[in-house]
Amino acid sequence: xxxxxEYKCPCCGGKVEFDxxxxxxxxxxxxxxxxxxxxxxxxxxxxxxxxxxxxxxxxAGTEWSDGETAGMKVFLCQSCGGEIIAEETTGASSCPYCGxxxxxxxxxxGDLRPDMVIPFKLxxxxxxxxxxxxxxGKKFLPKMFKDQNHIDEIKGVYVPFWLFDADSDADVRYExxxxxxxEDNRYRYVEKSYYSVRRAGKIAFEHVPVDGSSKMExxxxxxxxxxxxxxxxxxxxxxxxxxxxxxYDVSAEESxxxxxxxxxxxxxDKFRESVTGYDSVKAEHTSISLHNGTAKYVLYPVWILNTxxxxxxxxxxxxxxxxxxxxxLPLDKGAFWRAFGIWSVICSVIVYIIKVFLLK
Length: 360
Description:
Blueprint: E1 7-8, E2 15-19, E3 24-26, E4 33-34, H1 36-47, E5 72-77, E6 83-87, E7 102-107, E8 116-117, H2 124-135, H3 143-148, E9 150-183, E10 188-211, H4 218-224, E11 233-234, E12 244-246, H5 252-272, E13 280-309, E14 312-319, E15 325-327, H6 333-359
Parallel strand pairs: 8-13, 9-12
Antiparallel strand pairs: 1-2, 2-3, 3-4, 5-6, 5-7, 6-12, 8-11, 9-10, 9-13, 13-14, 14-15
């Protein structure tokens, strides 16, 4: 006995049935109607969709040469567990992430040697100036924070990143909706027309960054992006002189998931730009196939600033190449609610005036 063929509604996912009155396929849940040919084409298009294939060659970094790590030490933070690499002459007394003391763990060995590095272009003085600029114009920042917060420490840190390159074939299907609205003396009407829109093409990705340090918050590092890769140079130990380097604890293999997420988001956004003329658009299926996917191990320059106010630490970061500055600030709740109350009164007055005007 053959199985009955079932069609799902493209609009709500319900089971579509043949309506003898209209001689079309009709969804009993949302009342959408489709021709039989349209349903066949829709089902065929879905059946032909491929799953994403996003595989990488993660052979990034190289082995250190004999004697190259001599004089490099690893310092361990007893509080957050961060491991910092520094030359013996540079040393480290406190963790750049949590500010707690660090102790020397021993000589550096075992990790991969970076492929490339972007050297620091901006100095510590610039980082201090950028912090002052960051505090200006913040209406809801407590005034006492500006006056009383002090910089505990500023550290120039090379943060480990995995950079992913790949060529991709991408195919995205969207559900798009057009709305038509009208009204009469009794009702307001909304008519929705649903469309299945497809976009496909090739996109090349270069230097998709993923932070290789679990101690460095991903949102903080992604906020301080982008870094300009044109300034990257082959790694030499000399670039570490006078700075700290974070020891990566997230491998290239472990970073693939985040790289794939960033690539998928970019594909959706790029293709979405070409889907116009609709009132709403939603991606329903995305298929990405990667070719020649490779990874590099790169060090990016970041200034970390820790400040203390009201016994609470605040961490800021500055891109050591471009000067982009980010960091969370405390909120003056009193000033916020006073401003909120004033705006509420203003809005109420405006609404009252409009009502009075309309009733005339």
